[in-house]
Amino acid sequence: MEKSPLSTVDNAHKLMSSISHRILRLEYMDASEGEGRECRGITKGVSMRINNIHFEDRDDVRTVSGTVIWEDSDRPSQDVYFGVPQEFQEYLIGSAHPFILGSIVPAARSGERRIAIDGAICPHLTEGLMTAVAQFRQWYGQEFQMPHIEAVGSPIPVLADSGRSAASFLSGGIDSLALLRSNRLEYPPTHTGFIKHCVTVYGFDMGGKEGHSEALARMLDSLGRVTGEVNAQLMPVYTNVKSLNDGLEFWIYQFHGAALAAVAHSLAPIIRSISIAATYDLKNLKPWGSHPLIDPNYSSSDLTVQHVGIRLSRLAKTRLVADWETGLQNIRVCTQINSVLKASSNALNCGKCEKCIRTMTALVALGKLGACRVFPVNDVSKELLKSVVIESDYQQACYEELIEPLALKGRDDLVHAIKKLILTYRMKRSLKRLDQRLSGGKLLALKKTGFKRPDGLRPSRRRGSGDRRLTERHN
Ligand SMILES: [Zn+2]
Prior knowledge:
The protein is α/β, with parallel strands linked by helices. It has 16 helices and twelve strands.
């Protein structure tokens, strides 16, 4: 079923507009139903309720919505939705699974003691959720508490496999393109693991923000070319589930795997397995919101969630994409949406941010940047590389593996620039560790403020006031 990208963009904005004008109801559970408890000095709520799960048709979009009610007094209740264009309305399920998946990690992080949900939960999924939260607790400590799940509803029969297929998430980034390419190279069309649906999510990196409709249109147009070439169905899903807790670090380190799984479960009538592309390879694995120890726990008896690609380094994945003409011409790694929109009328990448430069340099190392039309330049200069600041061990690893292939191509200018970037990063990292050990990180924090004296120590220009402050301090 072929979709018009522009009509999909219209649908998304109608939906967002409808949601943004909705008045959020303030509902709080009766405090007598449970006892507040102290956790790291904060009085925690005692439970979360999820109810009123229902379908709605708004313009050309069908949604399944549910109301999430927090016990915490500073959070209003919230309607969470998952939506698809009406053409795909039969693919949307009204089960509790997407909602428990969308809320379990924010609830566990907030110390909710239980989640009362209207709807049955597959015991296989419940066990997985407990395992995932236990893993987060292992990584991040005591603040993660597994809420008791009180599901109200008759067990629902497991969906039949017939008519349901394998799917993957597709954003246009190297990880998801490499996953799709690898699937096409390794799975015959008759295999149950052959990806037939590619899910792209509106509501994670550009959803709900004004002015992003043009970027969304470009993305859908580009992804449509990819899925068209591999004969898969592109399925946009609109959701606001991220708004349950949209803190950046929480999203990256803890939440996004569960949110992706929630989206997949909302499409259970058409999907029997979903592949989430790995960010990190085995060599660089670290605690992350989507992880091989986490994602499979988000499976139910209806739907299997897989974390795919940990055997491949970033360069190996880039090579897979670069050797695939359609993939190469539709790479979208940039998240600097405003810069992309300013760059040109059909740009997908700004060509200036770290992620763009890292990908472009990898394509130079593979001899493919010159043939790639989705970046504003067809070569990387040492001056451009010098603008990069490496900020993580993973980024360091990504640049490090480019040194050898770049040297083989005679690009000593880029090799030297990368070595300098890595040296600078290692020096900063060593300094940071030393400062952490000696002062608990205070010296570098002080440096960031320009060694300004705290307000209480600043001399005043007013006559006498400095003396008064000193007096106050000594008292
Ligand atoms: Zn960029």
